[in-house]
């Protein structure tokens, strides 16, 4: 609506209508909420502070020296079992490696 | 090689020997102590990535994620002291990472999570007073020439995959089994106060917002979005921006006078 097919020009009336709608949809509470909040330091997201371990606290589990980066036997897991996978025989991701189903 | 460079290289490469010049205060084996330090460096950076990319970790499982992240850490150690910026190119790494290729949407999920972290730390800019736009509404003939500036926290992602739904399913707001990952979606990331929001938008909305960011007028940006999709809904799109206080400044473009 309000656009001419050939030039695709948006009319002033259409812009005014859209902006009016937007103002009505978004009215009031947001700015009030933003003004009431304040920035709080010292509550950075986990792992975002300068030292994840913290001074003097040697991390638990540090005795395992390394991750084995060269063995790739892991299979993606987690929510993967519920995530649709077109190549999987079950139609979803699996915790064990599977033979891919050929897609026709 | 200077000893500091050797130390750093050995820190990131487990195949390298402990730097030769290292000594310990109590005569214990420097190699064992160095290995502990090496592991702490690695695991704290992997932890930082896990905190920034929680949904990527859930999609892969912790063991897979940590092994993949460790390879990334060794290949791309931090360039600045600001850990929040670490992982800016993690998504690109994931995209090229063959063992994760069975989840082709993973890189875009990482891009979305990266936009969220970026939004969280972006500079504060006060939203435009709504009276300014109400005043603009009183002069409809000039609306075409309105320029809108958007908050620095705003991020956009156009994906060939259902990034927004995949992300939402991991926040408990959608059933993951109902998500078809192969449906293209666009994401709008905004910060409302201190709350980072992810909103699923149409590709035409995304194009409109990019046009505003590029300095196009309201009229011009709306026309581009309409050209992509006649169903483009300017009102809803602007409402998303206004609701989160994402419009920060406005001006009229005087170079483009009305005829």
TrEMBL record, chain A:
Q: Which Pfam families match?
A: DUF2282 (PF10048)
Leader peptide range in chain numbering = 1-34
InterPro entries per record = DUF2282_membr
**Which keywords label this protein?**
Signal
Protein name listed in UniProt: DUF2282 domain-containing protein
What is the native source organism of this protein? Pseudomonas aestuarii
Automatic annotation (TrEMBL), chain B:
Question: Which positions fall inside the Putative DNA-binding domain?
Answer: 4-94
Native source organism of the sequence? Pseudomonas aestuarii
Q: Which Gene3D superfamilies match?
A: DUF2063
List the GO molecular function terms.
DNA binding
**Domain of life, source organism:** Bacteria
This chain belongs to the protein called DNA-binding domain-containing protein
Q: By its UniProt entry, which InterPro entries does this protein fall under?
A: DUF2063, DUF2063_N_sf
- Is this entry keyworded Ribosomal protein? no
Arranged from A to Z, the UniProt key words for this protein are: DNA-binding
Metal-binding in keyword set: no
């Amino acid at each position: 609506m309000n656009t001419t097919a050939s030039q695709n020009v948006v009319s002033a009336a259409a812009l005014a209508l859209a902006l009016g709608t937007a103002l009505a949809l978004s009215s009031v509470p947001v700015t009030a909420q933003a003004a009431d909040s304040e920035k709080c330091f010292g509550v950075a997201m986990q792992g975002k502070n300068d030292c994840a371990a913290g001074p003097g606290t040697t991390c638990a589990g540090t005795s395992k020296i390394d991750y084995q980066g060269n063995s790739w036997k892991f299979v993606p897991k987690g929510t993967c079992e519920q995530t649709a996978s077109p190549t999987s025989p079950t139609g979803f991701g699996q915790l064990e490696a599977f033979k891919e189903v050929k897609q026709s | 090689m200077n000893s500091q460079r050797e130390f750093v290289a050995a820190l990131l490469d487990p195949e390298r020997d402990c730097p030769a010049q290292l000594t310990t205060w109590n005569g214990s084996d420097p190699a064992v102590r160095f290995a502990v330090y090496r592991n702490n460096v690695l695991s704290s950076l992997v932890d930082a990535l896990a905190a920034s990319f929680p949904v990527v970790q859930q999609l892969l499982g912790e063991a897979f994620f940590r092994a993949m992240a460790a390879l990334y850490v060794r290949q791309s150690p931090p360039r600045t002291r600001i850990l929040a910026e670490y992982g800016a190119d993690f998504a690109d790494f994931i995209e090229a990472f063959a063992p994760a290729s069975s989840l082709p949407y993973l890189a875009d999920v990482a891009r979305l999570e990266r936009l969220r972290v970026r939004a969280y730390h972006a500079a504060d800019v006060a939203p435009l007073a709504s009276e300014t736009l109400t005043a603009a509404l009183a002069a409809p003939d000039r609306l075409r020439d309105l320029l809108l500036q958007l908050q620095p926290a705003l991020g956009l992602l156009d994906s060939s995959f259902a990034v927004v739904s995949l992300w939402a399913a991991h926040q408990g707001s959608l059933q993951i089994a109902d998500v078809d990952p192969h449906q293209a979606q666009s994401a709008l990331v905004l910060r409302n106060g201190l709350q980072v929001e992810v909103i699923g938008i149409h590709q035409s909305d995304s194009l409109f917002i990019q046009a505003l960011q590029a300095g196009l007028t309201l009229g011009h940006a709306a026309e581009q979005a309409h050209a992509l999709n006649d169903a483009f809904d300017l009102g809803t799109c602007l409402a998303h921006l206004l609701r989160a206080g994402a419009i920060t400044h406005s001006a009229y473009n005087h170079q483009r006078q009305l005829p």
